[in-house]
Structure prediction request, 340 residues.
Amino acid sequence: MGQEIFERISVAPAGWDEIFEAARRRALKAGASLSRQRLKSMKRLEAARVKAAARYAAERLRRIALSSPFIDSLHPFYRELLETMMDVDEYRICLSRIYSVSRIIERVAGECLAEILRSSSVAEARRARRSFFGRLRSLLEGVDDCLKTLRAWQLEMLKLPSINPEEPSIVIAGAPNVGKSSLLKAISRAKPEIRPYPFTTKNVVVGHLELGGVRVQAIDTPGLLDRPLSEKGPVERRAVSALRHLRGVAVYLFDPTTTCGYPLDFQLAVYRGVRELLGGSRLIIAANKVDIMRPEHAGELIRALGGEARELLFISALKRVGLDYLLERVEEALLQVLSA
Prediction:
């Protein structure tokens, strides 16, 4: 299941008082048309107010909890992506607390309705209704921290790109600022932010194109650094998640000119990490920025790659040089991967 699971989220309010005030307004409307002449009518009025408020508050909380994605039911790609964005244990606890409070509100409402039914005076019926609203306020205040925390995470989820983990994918990887976003822009309909400094891409960015009559996702990932997976930050781990779990091939970009700010030995170390993660069958290598590349730049990379240099393509994402041949290679590799 892809991004649509996040589109069903019922976003938590900015604070508990939003739910409380909305419940109180519904309570006032609920009894507006009832007579206030006799005790029986007043009991019906107070009961209607409690029911309306309890129904709204409980249903709102339950919808917030149940519409938020359950981590364990997500595709591994989205599961790992969310793990880079939040404390998953705290997220689970908050969903459980919010849902539990919705059930408690219903139980408290039942107790107060019974008190209203037993009341022998208008004052007793009103006291039971006021007691319910006092307890409702206390219960909502008790989950205010969870509502605020969950809301922040939900809003981040809604910003996630619409990626189908089962759709054929081209994952563009490499060290920071080697031209990944420029390549995505050149081969797809995506419009990623492109700036001449590292880590412009903080999240995965998706575009689409057709190869051989098949719709393919092209995905720009955050820049990778040469360090073990256990030491990678949240931004890098999003790239690793895309590389590891999306169905397709990866294009690893080198910048032999080193205008990216990272020397060639650093880029090679990152490449070896990606190759180890994916295996050779899913990886295409390309040297970007051929428009400003000098022969000695190309020669140094070819020597460093050794026998692997036979597979190296030279391109310019910015000037759209060599992209047709790159896409032909991508199409061939995708066919092999998808038919395996």
